[in-house]
Write a structure and sequence with these properties.
The protein is an alpha/beta fold. The protein has 9 helices and 8 strands. The protein has an 8-stranded parallel beta sheet, with helices on both faces. Helix 4 runs parallel beside helix 5. The chain has one domain: Metal-dependent hydrolases (TIM Barrel). Bound molecules: nickel (II) ion. Nickel (II) ion binds next to loops.
Length: 261
């Protein structure tokens, strides 16, 4: 089975000290490529280092997560400078977006929207896909994507409804949903409906490691070697053959990030 993990965080303090073991286990499970996603300016260094150490395996997605939206202008300018300086190494801009889960303070929401739009425009300028984090912000995220129309959008760890997915599918963009461990949870009704409704052609497999480990590892550290559990869950929801689906998901993941040979 060939597998791709389009969204993880090997730079995270939980994984980074044991990253060699994690990569060994991932490769043994069939994982061919992983995409480390940035969240802060500080995260860029380790992500780029990992790509240098594992050039054909670790890929880099750099961007500033909405939880860092309150940083000052100099912080964002430096982030964009580093992104542009490393343009030849970057597969996408991410993870960027909106997160209203912990605070809906109007000033903070405004800052999140401003930095999200700014980074979407940067991705358009650099002709890169975007990886979007959207939590409790479905409509505002959709509004910004609808207004900016970036070329390629991965809504990572998709948590929206079928109705929201349908709205995205109407737009003239290459739209994908990132599907990870949540689809293996017994009570995760909405994502299961979304998987059944959408074509498998728009699904990207991801872990969000070290977060959101699939059943039966729920609550433990997540890692890319668990992706087969996610593919099995998708295959059973779509009544498809696991091996065939795995190869399809692998190829379209490579295609989305422009890595197909
Ligand atoms: Ni993430």
């Amino acid at each position: 089975m060939r597998i791709i993990d389009t969204h993880c965080h090997y730079n995270d303090d939980q994984i980074y000290p044991i990253v060699d073991e994690v990569i060994t286990r991932a490769k043994a499970a069939g994982v061919q490529a992983i995409f480390n996603n940035g969240d802060s300016l500080a995260s860029f260094t380790r992500i780029l280092e990992l790509q240098e150490k594992y050039p054909d395996f670790c890929h880099s997605v750099l961007g500033i997560h909405p939880e860092h939206a309150a940083h000052d202008q100099a912080y964002f300018e430096e982030s964009y400078r580093q992104i542009k300086n490393n343009i030849d190494k970057i597969s996408a801009i991410g993870e960027i977006g909106l997160d209203y889960h912990y605070s809906k303070d109007p000033e903070y929401v405004q800052a999140q929207k401003f930095r999200f739009i700014e980074q979407v425009r940067l991705a358009k300028e650099l002709h890169l896909p975007i990886v979007v984090h959207s939590r409790d912000a479905d409509f505002d995220t959709l509004d910004i994507i609808r207004q900016e129309l970036p070329e390629k959008v991965d809504l990572h760890c998709y948590s929206g409804s079928v109705e929201i997915a349908r709205e995205y599918l109407k737009l003239p963009i290459d739209f994908r949903i990132g599907v990870g461990g949540v689809c293996t949870f017994k009570n995760a009704r909405v994502i299961k409906e979304v998987i059944q409704y959408c074509s498998e052609k728009i699904i990207l497999t991801e872990t969000d490691a070290p977060y959101l480990a699939p059943t039966p590892h729920r609550g433990q550290m997540n890692e890319s070697s668990y992706i087969p559990l996610i593919i099995e869950a998708i295959a059973s929801l779509k009544m498809m053959d696991v091996e065939e689906l795995a190869e399809k998901l692998y190829q379209q993941g490579l295609d989305f990030y422009g890595l197909s040979k």
